[in-house]
Amino acid sequence: MHHPTHALRAEHQVILKVLDCFEIALRRAAAAQTLAEAEFLPFVEFFREFADRCHHCKEEDRLFPCLERCGLPREHGPIAVMLHEHQLGRAHVRAIAESLPAAAAGDPAALRRALHEGREFIHLLREHIYKENEVLFQMADQMIGDADRTALAHEYESAESQREVRIALTQGRSIADDLCRRYGITPAPGQDGP
């Protein structure tokens, strides 16, 4: 049986590929000193739906409480850091989304804000994923016993069986595939297709 972090690590690979695409889009927008809102909206949708609604819900609503039951405190340490960084990421994505219309209309301050928030978000999320993969998930793989591992697998399946989550996952993977094709990034293993 896979560790409960296996599915989360696989989703991280998809998110990292989309971050690679986002970095290219930001670099091009900075060079051109303009951006097309339609080019950036798929990124916002992916980060809100796939990364936050689907991926983070597994961590925040299922994995983290399980780790708490195993003795890892929520108020400080790795869980507290991850939760704080999830909030920071949401704030960056919200700021990007809010600045897009004005940036696309030619407002230089809005363009600077979109580019700055985008770069900050990429840096934050890459570091965040590294910490989860190399610290928190390593701890989880050691701390979580067989019974909890089985329970988490069922909870993940239950979450993914909810209609809105299933739709968000499917759309998120489709967006990731499209972005990888558009920006010439090799998709994550298992990303392009069922």
Please give a structural write-up:
The chain has helices at 5-32, 37-69, 78-104, 108-143, 146-161, 163-183. The chain has 194 residues and is an all-alpha fold. The protein has one domain: nmb1532 protein domain like (Four Helix Bundle (Hemerythrin (Met), subunit A), Up-down Bundle).
Helix-strand blueprint:
Layout: H1 5-32, H2 37-69, H3 78-104, H4 108-143, H5 146-161, H6 163-183
Helix pairs in contact: 1-2, 1-4, 1-6, 2-3, 2-5, 2-6, 3-4
State the helicity in percent bands: over 70%
Q: What is the approximate shape?
A: elongated
Strand content: under 5%
Number of strands: 0
* Element string (H = helix, E = strand): HHHHHH
What are the salient characteristics of this protein?
6 helices; Four Helix Bundle (Hemerythrin (Met), subunit A); elongated; mainly alpha; 194 residues; 83% helix
Characterize this entry briefly:
With about 190 residues, the chain is mainly α.
